[in-house]
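[09:14] KT: can someone run the structure on this one? pasting the chain below
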Amino acid sequence: MKKSILLTALLALIIIGGCRKNDDTPSPPECRIVKITNGTTVYSINYYPDGKVRTINTNNNTVLNFNYSGNTIIRTTLVNGLFYEKSIITLNNDGMVKNVRTETNSGGTQWNNNAYEYSEARVTKRTFTNSSGITPWVRNYVWMDGNIVSVLNPEDGIGTEYQFHTDKLMQVGDFFGTISDLMQYGTINAFYKNKNLLKATVSSSGTFITNYDYVFDASGKIISLNVVSGTSSDTYQYEYQCH
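[09:31] RB: done, structure tokens below
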């Protein structure tokens, strides 16, 4: 009788264990964008072994080279093999862009600088200066429900409003997080760390409206982005490498 009870208990454990093993689902593959096509322009993105962007090459002979040291990213842009500009990008402890100094001559004497201030992981202020000595200007960022909802000139309150697809969480392929951040800083969501996908930008006067529409594949990846402003439109198509 005792043997029968022990055998029954053992079989139950085996069955439960087998069910748990069968219930284990593999993690989805990690995917990164390796090509962006915008009209006739193609951006080919190459990565270092650690996953950081190494180069972004275009078919119009423009190359962006990225080098990393601690919390600093150096992005050098070459056009037809010649120096075009160099950006020195400094990150804060959260990995967000803190300062960007862009030098437009090889000696570094001509430059513009954007300094950013944060509250936790949310950018709140941008201050622009440059080597020509123009009066510095400031933009303030307003957040709501995890998204940047406006960027304003504090002197007159004029700026841009942002709308979001509140039913779609931020992911690779978003205009701000990918087209803007990846192309400028070599990393996703290094500046625009919103909760949701961007839907539209609207000028304070309501005159200028740009809409952002996304196309997803069967697995949920964004494979294209259509940007429509008035009668003009731009389409960005993404190709991924998954592993």
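[09:33] KT: thanks! The first helix runs from residue 2 to 23.
[09:34] RB: yep, looked fine to me
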